Amino acid sequence: MDGVVPAEPPSATRDWAALPRDVGYEIFRRVPHVDILNRAGLVCASWRRLAVEEPMLWQHIDIAFDWEEYIGVAYDEDEVFFNSQ
To answer: Which residues form the F-box domain (predicted)?
Structure first.
């Protein structure tokens, strides 16, 4: 077969830095702000730039934070308060 180039098999890895900016923005829009700063913004330089430079991500900031979910532990606030005195 003259002139036919065999297709390359799909890569097992992805170059997250190569995602178009609008795709990255759509991903970040669905991620809590804390996770953008603590995780997604650390993936690569282009994701960090997107996290810092995209004003639409920061027009409304949700500062609610679920410590139990973050540390993976449920606790009783009354028990913590009374045992600390």
So the answer is: 13-61
